[in-house]
TrEMBL record:
Component of a retrotranslocation channel required for peroxisome organization by mediating export of the PEX5 receptor from peroxisomes to the cytosol, thereby promoting PEX5 recycling. The retrotranslocation channel is composed of PEX2, PEX10 and PEX12; each subunit contributing transmembrane segments that coassemble into an open channel that specifically allows the passage of PEX5 through the peroxisomal membrane. PEX12 also regulates PEX5 recycling by activating the E3 ubiquitin-protein ligase activity of PEX10. The keyword Transmembrane applies. Residues 25-260 form the Pex N-terminal domain. Residues 270-293 are annotated as: Disordered. This is Peroxisomal biogenesis factor 12. Keywords: Membrane, Metal-binding, Peroxisome, Protein transport, Transmembrane, Transmembrane helix, Transport, Zinc, Zinc-finger. It comes from Seriola lalandi dorsalis. It is a multi-pass membrane protein. Belongs to the pex2/pex10/pex12 family. Pfam families: Pex2_Pex12 (PF04757). The keyword ATP-binding does not apply. It is found in: Peroxisome membrane. Its main location: membrane. One of its GO terms (biological process) is protein import into peroxisome matrix.
Length: 293
């Protein structure tokens, strides 16, 4: 479980993560979706007949994969994929530091909906509003119905609502930095959870939970069907998480490679004049020239 132990500091006295850790795990998932979107776009442009449906239904397919991935990590690691990648866990109920692994059922489903469904709805809303804004700019303004006026009012008010949400998130982060708030995000507050660092006991609990997945022979038919569904979802989530873990390192490398600091360093190195050849090579060339004459 390499992703479970990434950035793990077992010697840390305080289990509350720093603001750099929580912001890093947020930016991780924000970079995954655009990268997958670009890969699907390249596939669709290369072979539209075979991969065109992936581009047309990208948001829905990504939502399905995100649900499987996040549900797997919330069930087995009490964290989202990005939180587990940075050695964090979600704690529900008591706010003490020495809280073990495992989320309450309500906290689990609230976290899953806020992790997956809210970004999907926000992306759909922004795409719809952008399309309506473009149509309104290049269309003839006729007599509008009440529904159309309400729609235009929503399009005009959405930037202010988004700015207010961003201001609320920024204030929450400031309160988290100064130790006033226990969460850095309003979404975590809505899910009634907080983030904490993983410890050695949590790693052992995750390994024990992964090993105790035997077939429930003495259970009811509904429980057996649910076990088969969970095993199938786990079979999809584990390769997906492994691929994402490798892809994350590649994305971070590309981000560093195309960063402004690295590009300025490369330009500085390439702009330097070429060094002169060694002296012994110059003497050999002179001797060869004289012998040819």
């Amino acid at each position: 479980m390499a992703e479970a132990g990434a950035h793990l500091t077992s010697t840390a006295v305080n289990e509350q993560p720093s603001v750099f850790e929580v912001l890093a795990q947020e930016s991780l998932m924000e970079a995954v979706k655009p990268a997958l979107r670009h890969a699907v776009k390249v596939l669709a442009e290369t072979n539209p007949s075979r991969f065109g449906f992936l581009w047309q239904r990208f948001d829905e397919l990504y939502l399905l994969l995100d649900l499987l991935l996040q549900n797997h990590f919330l069930s087995h690691c009490s964290a989202s994929f990005s939180e587990n990648f940075y050695g964090l866990k979600r704690v529900s109920g008591g706010w003490g530091l020495s809280v073990g692994l495992g989320l309450h059922r309500k906290s689990h489903w609230r976290s899953l909906l806020l992790l997956c469904l809210v970004p999907y709805l926000r992306a759909k809303l922004e795409a719809t509003l952008a399309q309506q804004r473009d149509e309104a700019d290049f269309s003839i303004q006729l007599a509008q119905s009440r529904r159309q006026r309400l729609y235009r009012a929503a399009v005009a008010a959405y930037p202010y609502v988004r700015s207010a949400w961003q201001a609320l998130s920024f204030c929450q982060q400031l309160l988290f930095i100064f130790g006033v708030a226990r969460t850095h995000s309003p979404l975590l507050w809505l899910a009634r959870v907080k983030l904490a660092r993983l410890n050695a006991q949590d790693i052992r609990d995750m390994e024990l939970k992964s090993s105790n997945t035997g077939y429930p022979a003495d259970q009811s038919l509904v429980q057996k069907v649910w076990w088969l569904i969970s095993r199938a979802a786990r079979g999809v989530a584990i390769p997906l998480s492994t691929s994402l873990s490798l892809g994350v390192f590649f994305l971070q490398f590309l981000e560093w490679w195309y960063s402004s600091e690295n590009q300025s360093t490369m330009k500085t190195l390439t702009s330097l004049p070429a060094p002169p050849p060694p002296l012994h090579l110059q003497e050999e060339r002179s001797c060869e020239t004289l012998s040819s004459l």
